[in-house]
Amino acid sequence: MKELHEKAVAKLIRNGFEVFPVEDVQAAGTLIRQQLEALQPDSLSFGDSMTLYATGVVDWLRQQRPYPLIDTFEKGVRFRELIERRRQALLCHTFMTGVNAISASDGSLHWLDMIGNRIAPIAFGPRHVILVAGVNKIVETPEEAYRRIREVAAPQNVARHEGMKTPCAVTGRCSNCSSPDRICNERLILHKCHPKGRISLVLIDQVLGL
Question: Does residue 68 have a cis peptide bond before it, meaning omega lies within 30 degrees of 0?
Answer without folding.
Answer: no
